Amino acid sequence: MEEIVIYSEEFHQSIEELVEILYAKEYFGFRVDCQFYADKIYDFIDFNVMKPISKNSPLAYQKFGKKFIKYKANNNTSWYIFFDQKEHKFLINHITNNHSQDFPDLL
Predict the structure, then answer these.
(1) 85 Cβ partners below 8 Å, 6+ apart?
(2) What gap in Å lies between CA 96 and CA 75, rounded to an integer?
(3) Beta pairing, strands 4-7 & 55-56
(4) What does DSSP assign to residue 100?
(5) How many H helices and E strands in the chain?
(6) What is the pTM of this model?
(7) CB of 17 closer than 8 Å to CB of 34
(8) What secondary structure letter does DSSP report for 57?
(9) Per residue in 65-74, is it b (16+ CB within 10 Å) or e — as a string?
């Protein structure tokens, strides 16, 4: 059976904000590079959310999804992607990273 990955509007907005922040803070010199960084997050999710690498979300994060996967973007940044799963359907709800004030709760 085919897996279906659906992204919530909140998730899409978070990624759009990320692109703007990366560009405004000059992490990348060109907007297209910021978008490429964001696209790699989407690619990681599309190819990995159905693999058995997910973990159960800590209780405080279950409002974002019952499970999460970790994407290590580089040596400094890891992304935590929260989702819910029903059979072969995955709803991607929320994203945060290790620079967030909430990060210690995910250790």
Answers:
(1) 66, 67, 91
(2) 16
(3) unpaired
(4) S
(5) 2, 5
(6) 0.92
(7) no
(8) P
(9) bebbbbbeee
Single-letter amino acid code for the residue at 46: D
Polymer length in residues for the chain = 107
Question: What confidence tens digit (pLDDT) does each residue in 14-64 have?
Answer: 999 999 999 999 999 999 999 999 999 999 999 999 999 999 999 989 999
* Other beta carbons less than 10 A from residue 80's beta carbon: 22
Q: Which of 96, 66, 90, 83 is nearest to 6 (CA)?
A: 90
Tokens at residue 65, please? Answer: 């999804």
Buried b (16+ CB within 10 A) or exposed e, 25-60: eeeeeeeeebbebbeebeebbeeebbeeebeebeee
Residue type, 62: Q
